[in-house]
Write a structure and sequence with these properties.
single chain; alpha+beta; Jelly Rolls; TIM Barrel; Immunoglobulin-like; 5 domains; 9-stranded antiparallel β-sheet; 8-stranded parallel β-sheet; 16% helix; 38% strand; globular
């Protein structure tokens, strides 16, 4: 643990501070004094002292906690002074008492504000680039986990802009594609509807794919036992847990046959409190409903499904809805989020399907309104539409392209603050525009939500001194003349553009480098599969080129690099061997060569994998399906009851209610594989083979049988005693993912062995 106070590194430097002096008492062990910036930290140990002791630590005595381990190169970016447990941890409780703490000047202070300008200053010539400091987390935001404060979301201590999808259909294989293209969030079924082991495995895989998860609890359909259940404790501290999705459209409960007593706003607030410190997302049908449920969530959203509601609805309404969400969230200090349409939900009446251009325009409009998170409904169905081909097959590729762009904007939008003074002409119509500022820079967001060309003029104090508007992602540039930009925007054209003044540009060295797989507590850099999405997000974008190495090999050419306000690097690594691996990111910024080096461990299940069940406990390789209101063996069965035990060298699975079985833990099926097992049935029945959220039922006569399941990219085939008995042709999003074996409702079987291998 640690305790920290905020500091201002640029003020320390301006005051000539070079040391910390304190009077303290430390009993029971050692504690580190640490100075922290957004990228790394510098530490020195405080020696134990039973009595009150004076000590002065110069900044030169502090050492970098990451290689090469030297003293601080700069202090201007420091944001916190922290008392922390040593890296090796504590063996016993330690008590630290601090009676006084002072920053000690070691040189003459710099000229105070208002002093005569020196040559090269703002009023002189030949000035070096000005340095602005970025927004960082408040002092009480944890450096691990997630939290919402003052309308901003923080993940692992850094501002976070969630961008992603609802529902990837239970397939972990699709997470790679999501993370590789820069998306960072998914809302999935949670422990209320899947067995906890499945959710844990999903979270493990999401984290190494660079994606955070909000498991759904669907409390509008279940009683308090779902939230109060001890199962949530297992997931509460997972590194991939961004928050909980507590309720889906509670304002529409009358038409969705949910429990009214649960969905009353006051009752939903109570359920939010049960979840403790983890952020909670609540999504309503519209702002009117959201107003009623605003106190029930830390992240507030409406689902704006245009044009699913009909072609007569203007796309510009998205800006109005988004503004309402921002206003409602601001009253609660919550994060404003908007859910947009990715594919046709096809509810009671089929609606009109959106387009990639409309999706992007609505996302840009939401940014202009002040939205700080975007989720799209839904992922798995969009993938199916793409794989079938034909009409609307461009939705999923269009979403991935949008994810690439927003990944470069998100770190900026998570930090910026609204700025007044931007004048839009014409004020009425389907063009929306707004101005923001962050780190000494101004940004203009402008978008045409109409389906025809729009003549636009932007002016006002927000553009004072501007020479151009520049979109660093697309390269678009609009010249500003006489304090105004005048131009034409094509249908659904939009930009997030920097206001370039052309003199003394603000230059900030990279202050944040979020690595993937992430750093943190023990196990956070453990990859339980044979592949991962590696890379980093650098904010602000460095001036020079970026390169990535994996285990000493340059993989830059096979990586994806997206450049905008931030630079995002993603590399899909496959066939990772069991054991340690090293990744190194290189870039040049501020005239210096910089690098980040990080290690991760791969602990994969090797193939072939065999199990003869010749022990008394299942062990780490398997997990039982626990009682759940809806499980991924049988979505129609409300409660699972049964047992899975090892007896006399057999795995005995018996169902009393629902489909019962065991799940192979921390395993991602290869593209092609074969698995087989000997199984005994006392009477005619069936066994189940689980693939993601679908299962395959294999009917068997009484007796002992050899069952073999073979999968390729295009088919699944089952053999019983070497005879083919069934064949399926799954869609893409049902390949990969997890495996399980079991029995259907009321079934019973004895599994003698299990083997999984490549074909």
């Amino acid at each position: 643990g640690y305790a920290q106070v905020p500091v201002s590194g640029d003020r320390l430097r301006a005051a000539g501070v070079g040391a910390v002096a304190m009077n303290y008492r430390l009993r029971g062990g050692s504690v580190d004094l640490e100075m922290v910036n957004a990228r790394t930290s510098y530490r020195a140990a405080l020696p134990p002292a039973d009595d009150w002791t004076d000590i002065t630590l110069s900044f030169g005595e502090l050492r970098d906690t990451s290689p090469p381990g030297g003293p601080p190169e700069e202090t201007v970016a420091w944001r916190f002074l922290r008392f922390a447990a040593p890296r090796r941890g504590l063996e016993a409780p330690v008590q630290l008492d601090v009676r006084s703490l002072r920053f000690v000047p070691t040189r003459e202070p710099e000229a105070a504000s208002g002093a005569a300008a020196a040559p090269g200053s703002a009023t002189g010539t030949g000035a070096p680039p000005a340095t602005a400091t970025p927004v960082t987390a408040p002092a009480n935001i944890p450096d691990q986990g997630s939290a919402v404060q003052a309308g901003r979301l923080y993940a692992d201590g850094a501002p976070f802009f969630p961008f992603g999808v609802y529902l990837m259909g239970g397939n972990r294989s699709l997470m790679e594609e999501l993370g590789e293209h820069g998306a960072n969030t998914t809302v999935e079924y949670g422990p209320a509807v899947w067995p906890v082991p499945s959710v844990e495995d999903w979270l493990d895989y999401a984290r190494v794919a660079g994606v955070m998860v909000m498991p759904a609890l669907t409390v509008e359909k279940h009683d308090r036992a779902v939230i109060a259940d001890e199962r949530l404790v297992l997931l509460h501290r997972h590194a991939a847990l961004l928050g909980w999705y507590i309720a889906d459209e509670p304002d529409g409960m009358a038409i969705r046959r949910v429990h009214p007593e649960v969905c009353k706003p006051g009752n939903l607030v109570e359920r939010r409190e049960w979840l403790g410190e983890q952020p909670v997302l609540v999504t309503c049908l519209n702002p009117f409903g959201l107003q009623r449920y605003a106190r029930a969530g830390d992240m507030l959203s409406t689902d704006f499904y245009w044009p699913a509601y009909g072609p007569d609805r203007s796309a510009a309404v998205v800006y109005s809805d988004a503004e309402s969400v921002v206003e409602i969230a601001a009253e609660q200090g919550a994060l404003p989020v908007l859910a947009l349409q990715l594919e046709d939900p096809k509810w009671r009446d089929p609606g009109e399907v959106t387009t990639p251009e409309a999706m992007r325009a609505q996302a840009i409009a939401a940014l202009a309104a002040g939205i700080r998170g975007l989720l799209f409904f839904q992922g798995a169905q969009a993938v199916r539409i793409h794989d079938r081909g034909g009409e609307h097959e461009d939705l999923w590729p269009g979403f991935l392209e949008l994810a690439e762009e927003i990944s470069t904007v998100g770190p900026l939008a998570a930090r910026w603050r609204p700025r007044t003074g931007l004048e839009l002409t014409p004020a009425a119509g389907e063009v929306r525009a707004a101005c923001f500022e962050e780190g000494g820079e101004r940004w203009v967001v402008v978008v045409n939500l109409g389906q025809g060309d729009a003549a636009v003029r932007l002016a006002g104090p927000a553009l004072d001194g501007a020479r151009a508007l520049t979109d660093p992602y697309s390269g678009w540039r609009g010249e500003v003349q006489d304090g105004a930009w005048t131009g034409t925007l094509a249908p659904f054209e939009g930009h997030v553009a920097r206001v370039d003044t052309g003199d003394r540009p603000v230059r900030r060295v990279v202050a944040e480098s979020v690595l993937q797989p992430p750093d943190g507590a023990a196990g956070r850099r453990t990859v339980y599969y044979d592949r991962a999405v590696l890379g980093a997000t650098l904010y602000p974008s460095p001036e020079g080129e970026v390169s990535l190495e994996l285990d000493g090999e340059d993989v830059t050419l096979t990586s994806r690099i997206y450049r905008g306000a931030a630079t995002v690097v993603r590399h899909r690594a496959a066939n990772l061997s069991h054991g340690p691996h090293e990744a190194v990111l290189h870039w040049e910024d501020g005239g210096k060569a910089r690098r980040e080096r990080w290690l991760f461990q791969v602990k994969r299940i090797g193939l072939p994998f065999t199990d003869t069940f010749d022990r008394t406990v299942l062990g780490d390789a398997w997990a039982r399906v626990r009682d759940v209101p809806w499980n991924h063996f049988d979505p129609e069965e409300p409660v699972v009851q049964g047992s899975a035990t090892l007896t006399d060298g057999d795995l005995h699975i018996r169902s009393e209610r629902g489909a019962m079985g065991v799940i192979l833990r921390k395993f991602e099926a290869p593209v092609e594989f074969a698995m087989g097992f000997h199984v005994r049935l006392a009477e005619p029945g069936a066994v189940l083979i689980q693939r993601n959220e679908l299962f395959r039922e294999v009917k068997l006569p009484a007796g002992r049988h050899l069952v073999v399941f073979r999968e390729t990219p295009t088919e699944q085939r089952v053999f019983v005693d070497d005879r083919p008995v069934a064949e399926w042709h799954p869609e893409r999003d049902h390949r990969g993912g997890g495996l399980a074996i079991g029995v259907p409702d009321g079934g019973e079987a004895w599994f003698e062995d299990f083997r999984l291998e490549l074909p």
